[in-house]
Design brief:
GO molecular function (chains A, B): catalytic activity
Oligomer: homodimer
Protein name (chains A, B): ADP-ribose pyrophosphatase YjhB, NUDIX family
Mean pLDDT of chain A: 90
Largest interface: A-B, 44 and 44 residues
Number of strands of chain A: 10
Number of helices of chain A: 2
Shape of chain A: elongated
Pfam family, one (chains A, B): NUDIX
CATH architecture of the largest domain in chain A: Alpha-Beta Complex
Low-confidence stretches of chain A: 176-180
Bound molecules: zinc ion
Order of helices and strands of chain A: EEEEEEEHEEEH
InterPro entries (chains A, B): NUDIX_hydrolase-like_dom_sf, NUDIX_hydrolase_dom, Nudix_N
Amino acid sequence: SDLTDAPRGPVVERVPAGDERLRLVCDDCGFIAYENPKIIVGAVVTHGDRYLLARRAIEPRKGFWTIPAGFMELNETAEAGAAREVWEEARARVTVGPLLGVYSLTHISQVHLIYRAEMIDADHAAGPESLEVALLTWDEIPWDDLAFPSVVWALEAQRRSVGRSDFAPEGAPERPHRPE
Amino acid sequence: SDLTDAPRGPVVERVPAGDERLRLVCDDCGFIAYENPKIIVGAVVTHGDRYLLARRAIEPRKGFWTIPAGFMELNETAEAGAAREVWEEARARVTVGPLLGVYSLTHISQVHLIYRAEMIDADHAAGPESLEVALLTWDEIPWDDLAFPSVVWALEAQRRSVGRSDFAPEGAPERPHRPE
Ligand SMILES: [Zn+2]
Ligand SMILES: [Zn+2]
């Protein structure tokens, strides 16, 4: 069979029997993909008065700077996932602290759980998804070259909560700076 | 073809090319099901000194009492999802307040985001997934007949945070009362 005949997986939108919402279904095998919002876990990582940022080696927003964050995996806590992402992207070991932000991004159906984390030592290095990693003071942060609005929100949430541990995480602002 | 030959969807565990983790793949159509943790949104709903609880009409834990909670849907905020679940299960309209708990249940790969919510009026009724709904004082809560440990955690988090709005959400206790 040529490529146009190849099975394509769940790509047809339909309301399955007994359901009330459109779901992606596969006409080849009948599988129903119950799409759920996805969880992004990440951290604003500090070492003294410096912030750990990574420059993205992959799309989207390749070449722009971000805090370590990525898709939460199965069978981990949100805090463990945040620490894992810090290790994978910036090769730093951290202690995860309070939740800075819970950002529901409705247009892409993601919930970002961003924690405060402190480095156990100053070691850091670029992981496979990063071009470079840097420990920067607040004034050195490349504000015009940050990858996503939620990076700005989380950095500002950390700045506002310095010295506090018992505070409510913030949500996404009413007007995001830029669609993500 | 008989039933044993029917396509079964993604049921084979394999590490796809370019990936590093086991995923469920479909041998019929090649679809890879990237399973992600799922988000449960819910609320501890109060009206004065009373708590809104629903008795489950569906499995799991049919017949047991719960706070309104369920799977977050696409394209909604976590807060809107919590209010939606309150309406679907207990036919009450609420104002959603601060986050009481963020419970990572690693054995079932769920993250529960449980908010405090206040009823706009006293109206309530059983939705299709509830056998009955009740507004109960703290002492009337059927502690031995609650559906899930996270219901207990969230009720206790609400009790501890009464009168406060700027506080950190709690996580799951180290030793869950009972596997969920
Ligand atoms: Zn298929
Ligand atoms: Zn298939």
